Amino acid sequence: MARTRTAAAPPPPPDIRPVPLLEALSERYLSYALSTIMARSLPDVRDGLKPVHRRILYAMQQLRLDPEQGFKKCAKVVGDVMGRFHPHGDTAIYDALVRLAQGFATRYPMIDGQGNFGNVDGDNAAAMRYTEARLTEAAVTLMAGIDEDAVDLRPSYDGSDSEPVVLPAGFPNLLANGAIGIAVGMATSIPPHNADEICDALIHLLDHAKATFDKLLELMPGPDFPTGGILVEPRESIKSAYESGRGSFRLRARWTVEKLNHGLYQVVVTEIPYQVQKARLIERIADLLINKKLMLLNDVRDESAEDVRVVLEPKSRAVDPAMLMESLFRASELEVRISLNMNVLDRNNVPSVMDLRAVLQAYLDHRDEVLMRRTQYRLGVIERRLEVLDGYLIAYLNLDEVIAIIRAEEEPKPVLIRRFKLTDGQAEAILNMRLRALRKLEEIAIKRERKALTDEKKDQTALLNSPETRAAVVKGELRDVKKRFGKGTALGKRRTEIGAPPAVIDVPPEALIEREPVTVLLSAKGWIRALKGHGDNGEIKLKEGDGERFSLAAETTDKLLLLGTNGRFYTLGCDKLPRGRGFGDAVRLMIELENTEDIVAMLVHRVGQKLLVAASDGRGFVVESDAVVAQTRSGKQVLNLGDGAEAARVVVAEGDTVAVVGDNRKLLLFPLAEVPELARGRGVILQRFKSGGLADVKVFRIAEGLTWRSGERTRTETDLRAWQGERAQTGRIAPTGFARSNRFG
């Protein structure tokens, strides 16, 4: 039998090394995070653009899609961007291009679109093969000087082309158009502003390097959204947001009241908040109407054409328009909050949150750098032209000899260089000179051009060496931007009104909830529900082994107050209770009540009403019902309990006398005035007990007598002198016929 050999395992390739999984994941996730931050999500503070937007504009400039030129298909632009600069999906590139062309999304559009580019209703743009685009004046201004070495260029993704690292940014795009982006662990949100006001703030900062935020806020009072609206954020909040670089702005829709016949009116919304889709807004309001959440509104209609016109019809002419709109502001996107988070990349590609002054200063520093680079580029052009002109003048002074050398020599260039000490460029220019340029008039023109270039060189050199002169030039450029895009133009006119913070308007519950009568039932085992109407509800279904406990008449606009044995009050809205003929829901799922605790009382909250709360140890006090309303599911601690005591009773404190009965059937009556009114505490002793505790308490008018139920009968005792006394006494045995349960009702 042949002997088999076991082949040795091949050695691992030399470029493979073992790496712990945690280290590999951390390294790769960090690389991904940095790529997302710097190459996708955060804008550059200098030109306010993300790479995809910058590449789109640069590609369109390379295609010569200037405002004076014709349109080209967006598919051509997207293909050029994707093939040369941005190796990502065409859908993402086209979506970015569309946003740059939407006048309702971009305050100063960078692209002039022809075709269907979407609308404020939220409809998408047509496919890229149907739409066309070219650059706007703002985009041209943003890229002015890019061919004059104003910014650095870097190789494209495949090294076959070059793209700008940043644009020259002759237009203050970051603040003018804003930016939104979500990166890894950070985000940016900058609302758009008015270019006229931005230029004023930049000019002021050039003149006053330590400008205060108060002055900058005076020049830039707040954002200016393309869809208009009214900014109702307090000035202090706006200032705080600009000082820290983080905050938010409260923006409301603009509305007017249109009078109709017979005293009727309708509210017309003419401007909606920024980034709110009109169709979804109307759909939201319609849903609220269907669900009976807007009881002051009767109907909503969209009568918009090219402008926005949303008609709101009130329930009746008695409805106050301000109250109607306040209910809509609270319930719908007619009022929104626009966040401010000026998290941007600085000139070193480091993300940081900048305040307003830092953002403005970064833009001015960039413009100064662009001006210096363009000046140096122009000086280089002048130097090269002067060199050529000097060579021409030498040729004119030695014209016959130059011609002789050219005619006689087979290689005249090196001979000309040696004979007249010319540079290579000068000799090449002389050899390329046309014969017609040998006229005397051309010599005069060359001398004139040389003098003009020499003077310009002095000016450019002085500009390069003088920060004050450069600041004056930048200021002039800003004034030119202000003139072209300022408030005197249709595009630059301020659209968002800076309004005062709105007055607080108390919207009653019926404005948001339909008022209906209901009967609230809480079973012995804690199942709660609301049955429609008052009175006889027929046979009430209960779970097996359960029984009735509390039942009271209320309305859907009411609030329920529940007292637990732990002395805490809990609050439930009647409109939130389960409806129908089922068993309801467990009340413990609606409030945070321990399994060891129970509900001892349930009543309807009435504003201004006073309540008497009492514990099982006979202590209690009077409290206002408004003070026991809880805002959270955990309730509100009102009655502090002693050792072994529980909350026992809460009754409405209407009357002049308190009746207290204990488990020992002893009854005590004393004036209500002897019970203090507290907001929270243990209270005072209402009745003393040698054994047992408090069974029931009641507040009544002594002149009307004390009433209680015994079985199916109701009895009233008017001669109560035997049981009257002072608070904290033990009392006497209850009168004959008093309920065996030791309860008043």
Task: Characterise this structure.
It is a single chain. With 745 residues, this protein is of the alpha+beta class. Among the domains are: 49-168, Alpha-Beta Complex (Topoisomerase II, domain 5), CATH 3.90.199.10; 254-333, Gyrase A, domain 2 (2-Layer Sandwich); 509-733, DNA gyrase/topoisomerase IV, subunit A, C-terminal (Neuraminidase, 6 Propeller), CATH 2.120.10.90. It has a 4-stranded mixed beta sheet. The protein is elongated and about 150 Å long.
Structural class: alpha+beta
CATH fold type of the domain at 509-733: Neuraminidase
- Give the uncertain stretches in residue-range form: none
N-end to C-end Cα span: 107 Å
CATH class of the domain at 509-733: Mainly Beta
Rg is 42 Å
Q: Give the total of beta strands.
A: 35
Number of helices: 17
Strand content: 15-25%
The dominant shape is: elongated
Query: What number is the mean pLDDT?
Result: 90
Features:
single chain, 745 residues, alpha+beta, Topoisomerase II, domain 5, Gyrase A, domain 2, 4-stranded antiparallel β-sheet, 17 helices, 32% helix, 22% strand
What is the topology?
Blueprint: H1 21-41, H2 51-62, E1 72-73, H3 74-84, H4 90-101, E2 111-114, E3 132-135, H5 137-143, E4 153-155, E5 162-164, H6 173-177, E6 179-182, E7 187-190, H7 195-207, H8 213-219, E8 230-231, H9 235-244, E9 246-252, E10 254-259, E11 265-271, H10 278-290, E12 297-302, E13 310-314, H11 321-331, E14 335-341, E15 343-345, E16 351-353, H12 356-397, H13 399-408, H14 412-420, H15 424-431, H16 440-465, H17 467-485, E17 497-498, E18 517-523, E19 527-532, E20 548-555, E21 559-564, E22 568-573, E23 585-586, E24 599-604, E25 610-615, E26 619-624, E27 636-637, E28 647-652, E29 657-662, E30 666-671, E31 684-685, E32 694-700, E33 706-710, E34 713-717, E35 732-733
Parallel strand pairs: 8-17
Antiparallel strand pairs: 1-3, 2-3, 4-5, 6-7, 8-9, 9-14, 10-11, 11-13, 12-13, 15-16, 18-19, 18-20, 19-23, 21-22, 21-24, 22-27, 25-26, 25-28, 26-31, 29-30, 29-32, 30-35, 33-34
